Automatic annotation (TrEMBL):
Family membership: Belongs to the FAD-dependent glycerol-3-phosphate dehydrogenase family.
Name this protein carries in UniProt: glycerol-3-phosphate dehydrogenase
CDD domains (alphabetical): EFh (cd00051)
First-tier enzyme category under EC: oxidoreductase
A GO MF label: calcium ion binding
Domain EF-hand, chain residue ranges per copy: 433-468, 469-504
Keyword match Chloroplast: no
A GO-annotated cellular component: mitochondrion
GO biological process, one term: glycerol-3-phosphate metabolic process
Statement: the UniProt record of this protein carries the keyword Lipid metabolism: no
Length: 529
């Protein structure tokens, strides 16, 4: 058993919980709204709220002008001026009712309505890390509400991996939250106590790390406005802006129904039907069955893991994706070229994602699939092919492809923990024999006896060793080894990196195979006489 049973003696209760793929759930809601004639806009930000006379007053002014004193009508929110963040184009959206459902950005929108009103949202961050699946039982997790510093920590199975993290540390609102090495170390130190003593918790087993922000809401309608609301809050401003804040996924339909009921009343809307959220099926649910994956295996010749993944994420839309899949060129599976050998994500999903409003490479890496969250190095390795496929679907030229590669690389570094990989200086732990062997290897890699290894040296060495890595992948690997950030690897960088690989402080790297591969002796190489 992986869990330290002695630590379980302090457990006070057992509870049952469920999991879902929240990014996919959010997208499914948007796609379902489109099915019911909603207009949605991706990558659009609100610049300001527009105000004017109420729509019902404007309508009345043409027929009842003598009965209304329009000058005394208070201004209400009538829409928003927005900007497309991809093109820079600005435009105005007009509406009878405006609902502010922006999570951590709740107060930013509220202040556009009235800059003097007090905040009701306290952003709180939580750092999460992904570990190999063997760290956690497949159907059991744990939660400790009382860690060394008082934060909550959880340890759960998630998408065949182990997810560990903290919650609810007050933070400053930012568009690009980033984990720190100290937070990653704290999580590892905490979970170490709950695992069997014979399991070595290694820094190098951290496959990705990220920080998320959620809003803790203070109810403005409560007498104690400083206390955190346990449930959601609906607020209506004097100008008619409706704000829905707080809540959780398990009550999202109830929250939506209450919010729309409030909008109907406040904004004098005339709905054409009663609320129909109860029993409403989301996109992909109509023809889905638990055994649908078998159809993909039997009729399309897909790998079982790929078939389970597609039907589990896309529901009955998996059949459409299967019809878009390319031949593998192998005896089995017949269809479904993988984007990365370690994951069930296939190339056809990239094409499908572009039909589901994916606009950038990170949309696919982090929001249509969870590859960036599950293994940031694997995401970096799959990135060039993802950009190639999206370029075909979205007509990207070479300049745009380069821009997307750089943008996604920066995202993986700053927000998904890639910048933490190998960042620390690891004490040398090599024997004299290992050091001598590695110094010989370093001199062989160092073309021209410069005293350091460059990107071109790495590229040449990988080609000779049969490791085919893209230029972008090599650049990331070089940066992970380059401790003084001068764009090259000196002998100190090299030995510290190999020490880190030996101790497990950094994840397994393809360069380990390259650097550790000893030259083939002449009598074994097929050369000579």
């Amino acid at each position: 058993m992986m869990v330290n049973t002695r630590m379980l003696e302090c457990v006070l209760s057992v509870y049952h919980s469920g999991q879902h793929e929240d990014a996919r759930m959010c997208l499914s809601l948007a796609l379902t709204a489109v099915r019911y004639n909603a207009a949605i806009a991706n990558y659009v930000e609100v610049l300001e709220l527009t105000k004017g006379r109420p729509y019902h007053s404007l309508a009345a002014s043409t027929t009842q002008i003598g009965q209304l004193n329009l000058e005394k009508q208070p201004e209400v929110v009538t829409g928003a001026r927005v900007r497309d963040r991809l093109t820079g184009k600005e435009f105005v959206i007009r509406a009878r009712c405006v609902i502010n459902a922006t999570g951590p950005y709740t107060d930013r929108i509220r202040h556009m309505d009235n800059k003097n009103q007090p905040d009701i949202c306290q952003p709180a961050s939580g750092v999460h890390i992904i570990l190999p699946g063997y760290y956690s039982p497949s159907r059991m997790g744990l939660l400790d509400p009382s860690t060394r510093d008082g934060r909550v920590i959880f340890f759960l199975p998630w998408m065949n991996f182990a997810l560990a993290g903290t919650t609810d540390s007050p933070c400053t609102l930012t568009d690009r939250p980033s984990p720190t090495e100290a937070e990653v170390r704290f999580i590892l130190d905490e979970i170490r106590d709950y695992l069997s003593p014979d399991i070595k918790v290694r820094r190098g087993d951290v496959l990705s790390a990220w920080s998320g922000i959620r809003p803790l809401i203070m109810d403005p309608n409560s007498a104690d406005t400083q206390s955190i609301a346990r449930n959601h809050v609906i607020e209506v401003s004097p100008s008619g802006l409706i704000t829905i804040a707080g809540g959780k996924w398990t009550t999202y339909r109830s929250m939506a129904e209450e919010t729309i009921d409030k909008a109907v009343k406040v904004c004098n809307l005339k709905p054409k039907s009663e609320c129909r959220t109860k029993g409403l099926l989301l996109e992909g649910a109509h023809s889905w069955t638990p055994n649908l994956f078998i159809q993909l295996v039997q009729e399309h010749g897909m790998d079982v893991d790929v078939a389970r993944h597609l039907t589990g994420i896309y529901g009955d839309k998996a059949l459409v994706i299967a019809n878009m899949a390319s031949l593998t060129g192998q005896r089995w599976p017949v269809l479904g070229k993988k984007l990365h050998p370690e994951f069930p994500f296939i190339e056809a999903e990239v094409k499908w994602a572009c039909q589901e409003y994916a606009c950038r490479a990170i949309d696919f890496l982090a929001r249509r699939t969870r590859l960036a969250f599950l293994n940031v190095v694997a995401a970096q390795e799959a990135l060039p092919r993802i950009v190639e496929l999206m370029a075909v679907e979205l007509n990207w030229d070479k300049r745009k492809q380069k821009e997307e590669l750089e943008h996604a690389q920066e995202f993986l570094k700053s927000e998904m923990g890639l910048h933490l990989q190998g960042k620390e200086s690891v004490p040398l732990n090599l024997t004299m024999a290992e050091t001598d062997q590695l110094l010989q290897r370093f001199r062989k890699l160092d073309a021209g006896t410069k005293g350091y290894i460059t990107l071109s040296d790495l590229s040449r060495c990988c080609e000779e060793s049969g490791e085919h890595l893209s230029k972008e992948s090599l650049q990331v690997l070089l940066e992970s080894m380059d401790m003084d950030k001068n764009g090259r690897i000196d002998v100190t960088d090299f030995l510290h990196f190999m020490s880190a690989l030996k101790s497990g402080t950094v994840p397994h790297s393809p360069l380990k195979r390259v650097f550790s591969r000893a030259p083939v002796p002449v009598h074994r190489s097929g050369g000579g006489v």
